[in-house]
Structure formats: C-alpha cells, structure tokens
Amino acid sequence: MSIVETSVAAPLGGPTLPQERRLVTAIPGPRSQELLDRKAVAVAAGVAHTVPVHAVAAGGGVVVDADGNSLIDLGSGIAVVTIGNAHPAVVAAVQAQAAQFTHTCFMISPYDSYVAVAEALNRVTPGDHAKKSALFNSGAEAVENAVKIARKHTGRQAVVAFDHGYHGRTNLTMALTAKSMPYKSGFGPFAGEVYRAPLSYPFRDGLTGAEAAARAISLMEKQVGADNLAAVIIEPIQGEGGFIVPADGFLPAVVDWCRANGVVFIADEIQTGFARTGAMFASELFGIVPDLITTAKGIAGGLPLAGVTGRAEIMDAAHAGGLGGTYGGNPVACAAAVAAIEAFEAEDLSARARAVGDILVSRLSALRAQDARIGEVRGRGAMVAAEFVVAGTTEPDAALASAVAKACIAEGVIVLTCGTYSNVIRFLPPLSIPDALLHEGLDVVAAALAAN
Ligand code: PMP
Question: Binning pLDDT at 50, 70 and 90, where does residue 8 land?
Fold first, then answer.
C-alpha cells in the first residue's frame, strides 16, 4: 500500500497551494524516507534523485512532500514547469482531452491537437520563413530526429557538437553530449561521425565571440571538412554544461559559416526554449535564425512532448514513414502544449522571466561582491547560475557547489547543480513563483553559502 493512500488526502496542486516554505520534519521526513526505501528496492540504481522527498503536490513556486513539508522550487523539474506546476489551463486541457481519447497514434489516424502544436511551433519559433514541425516524446528523441532530417537533407553524415554540450541519454545523443560522468561513462560504443568543437566560454577562455567562432570553424574545416558535415548542433546557452552564455558574435558567426557551407544549423532549445531566457527562444537574444530547432521541457507544462521545427524544405527531406513513433505527439500532451503555448503568450511570460531574472542576478551579484568564491553570475532571463571557484582563481570548486545545494535542500529550497566541472548552481524557478518566495529562497542560498 502506498504511503499516500494511508495519509490524509494529498493537497491539491497548482495555484491553490499555500505559497510558503514550511518544514514540519527534517528532509527527508519519515514518509518520504519510507518511499525512498521502496525506491531503492524497486527502481534501478542508475535512476538517481537530487531532492530526497516524495512529491504529492506542486504549484506556484512550491513542491509539497509526503510529510507535509512545502519546499520552494527553484528548479522547475529541470526547466519544465516554466508556466507553473499544474497550471489550471494545462490541467483543464489534459482532463478534457483524456476524457475524449488518449491515443490513436498520429501515424494511424491524425488529430487536431498535434497539428495545432505544429502550427504554433511554426509560428513562435524564430524566423519568418516557411516552417514545418514533427513531434516526439522527449528531448533526446527530438535531437535524434533533427540529426536524421539534417543528414537526409544534405546527404552528408558528420555532425558537430560543442564542448560542454548536453543533448540527451540515447546512443546518438550521448555521443553528442560532452560530459562523461554521469551521462556516458561505460555506456559506449557511441554513434559515429560525431565531432566536438570548442565553445565560447568567456569566463574561462577570455576570447571574443569572433575569436571563439574562428577556433570552432577552423576545427570544422580542418578536422571534419564542410563537404562532410550535415549539421552543427548547439544549445544557444549551454544548460547542463553550466549555463554558459557565449560571447557576443559567436553564434552569428557559426550560423553564417553553416549557411555559406550548406550545413544545417540546429539550435537545441530544449532547456532554453519557451520564455525561460526572457525571450520565447534564446536564439532571438543572439540575433540568429536556426535552420532547425529542437524543443521539449517547457512546451507542455509538464507533459512529455518534444518537437523539431524548421525550414519546410529541410523538414520535408525525410521520406513518408521515415519519422514518427507510436506515442510521438500524444493527444493529451498536445492538448497540454496548446494550452501552455497560449499561456506563454497571453501571460507574457517572457516579460515575467526577465523580471525573475533581474531578481536572481541582483541578489546573486550582491553575494558575489562579498564572496570571491562565486567566480561568475551569468544567464539570461530566469535561467541564471553562479559558478563556484577557489577564491581568487578560476579553479572549479565542485565541493562548495554541492555543499551549498545540499544545505539549501535541507532548508526546504530546491536548487540544482550543473556544469562540466559540477561547480555551478543553476536557478530555474517556475515563472509562477511569487517574488517574496523567490527572495526567501535566495535568503536561504545566501545563508547556505555563508555556512560553508
Ligand atoms: N537537450 C538539452 C539542451 C537538454 O537540456 C536536455 C535535457 N536536460 C535534453 C536535450 C534531453 O531531453 P530529455 O531529457 O527530454 O530527453
């Protein structure tokens, strides 16, 4: 029997939840601990967790656990519930669609909501050229398909990804992903014809955007050869790699080179997309128009859905039956996405992301001014990070980032770490978080830093 069944009814999620940090037990409390014990027995060890509580409800800016603790959410389930957990419009759309039908398989008998999501993606992604979309279940699957489409379109095989890049955990996307532990170690051999180019990482390389682009382009020309290169894939702001914002001019120079050489430029906006960075897509912030763009995470308010959107002539390169999958573009997920995309626009969540970002950057910059162990505060919109270093150097301090994150979680604030060197704490709050709660969360971060 599950713990939840034996307890009093779980609180309703969504905006009805009290917006407060409330600790009634240690983290984890006894009910969460019991569930964690069951998890340890039943769930494969490779599926780890960061926050040792079992969620029973979430909404606004909080996650409530099985013991009645209410934690401030500064992670959004890794940039997914950007519009807020259990957003009422998403809940209503899911309920209505689930009562109509839950599946037909779009490849068997199509339905309206899939087409509506494709139309919305074609409209809201950067560029006013003719676009088409295809839908999938996860970010990794979208990336796989973007590469398939680019290869079919160009008749070439090689793909270039970047240092610090993260693109997923399937075989091809592991190959595209830079970091070995925990994503790749022991899971090879990996897909072939994947090459890695150096990124622009201003805090660490001190290069201008033009210099960093020239370095990457040289590798592509000399080690791969433009004639062999189907696609370049890059996150406009590296997510798992450490919220790395490239220097001005880097991305446009890479895009220009791709265009001049018939290489498909794929922006992986799975983490940066849907208002997270203060624009609907981060590509807009850098003035670039990708040929293809991959989306997932924020697209459907928490339902599993992903997309590839791009130039119609590239998207149409794959033969009939070459793209798809049993569940891709599931009707319940599509209904959620239609509602979520409407909310992003109607609630002007890009503006809200900028306001949240202003709070994050000003509070974290104030901490950095007093503490040289914060090497850099960076990001765009509500995608902001602090990189921890040994004071006065750029030497990564992963132990400090981990200690601060653990201390925050123990005090009821969910924060996530990231970075190639595991020395970055990233802040990705749901945009539905009240300002006061965000400030309280950052007070806890400040105290955790001071104590470590
Ligand atoms: N690309 C990027 C940029 C991501 O951040 C992620 C997920 N963290 C993925 C791809 C993979 O997405 P998923 O976990 O849905 O497969």
Answer: low
